[in-house]
Design brief:
The chain is mostly beta strands. The chain has one domain: Jelly Rolls (Sandwich), CATH 2.60.120.10. About 10% of the residues lie in helices and about 45% in strands. It has 2 helices and 17 strands. Strands 3-4-5-14-9-12 form a 6-stranded antiparallel beta sheet, with no helix packed on it. A 3-stranded antiparallel beta sheet has the order 11-10-13, with no helix packed on it. It has a two-stranded antiparallel ribbon with strand order 1-2. The longest helix is centred in the N-terminal third of the chain and has 10 residues. The protein starts with 11 loop residues before the first strand and ends with a strand. The relative contact order is 0.19. The structure holds D-sorbitol-6-phosphate (S6P) and zinc ion. D-sorbitol-6-phosphate (S6P) binds next to strand 5 and strand 14. The site of D-sorbitol-6-phosphate (S6P) has 14 residues, from strand 5 and strand 14.
Length: about 190
Amino acid sequence: MLTEIDFPITLALDPESDIFDPCPQVTPRYLSDLKMMFKDQQAVDEILKEENRLIYEIRYYPFRTSKSDMALAVTRIFPGNIGGEYHMTKGHKHERDDQPEVYYCVKGEGFLLLDTLEGEFQAIPWRAGTITHIPPMWAHRVINTGTDLLVFIGVFHLSAGHDYEIVAQKGFSYRVYAVDGKPALIRQT
Ligand code: S6P
Ligand code: ZN
């Protein structure tokens, strides 16, 4: 039997602004929120003396019904770099090891970095229209290597949970830097 939360929900993503409506939750991530993720801590501190730069923001909608849970998140990463390292998401692994996710790049260019605890690594080049299935157990981070916004949609289960600590401690196998104006993947030891 249907309850009041068991009815379809339709959202509209504005193709100009990449903002969807209605949107119950917006989470901005400033440089201070992901300070430790960048390699060049001196560059971070110098920028923070001037401004706490907005690196990206997440617009989020939880779809809860009486029998399921899903979520949609639209992430907009602003262009730029910190000490040559491109703006990126914090990155996380899902807490539950049976929880995948689908990412769809709406606009922009960059990379999706994927890492496992067993040492597997992939860097998927991204541009508008790229869709990637992220299997369970792969940590994920998106890098904006372009000169404009990079926008992507993530669809996942609310119950997946987010482990940021593992990324803060271990990092990803590669970092992405601007070298002569072009992206270069640099292996981390
Ligand atoms: C959630 C999904 C995305 C990210 C968002 C920001 O599972 O992967 O919605 O939350 O792109 O990245 P992060 O690493 O700050 O959560
Ligand atoms: Zn995720």
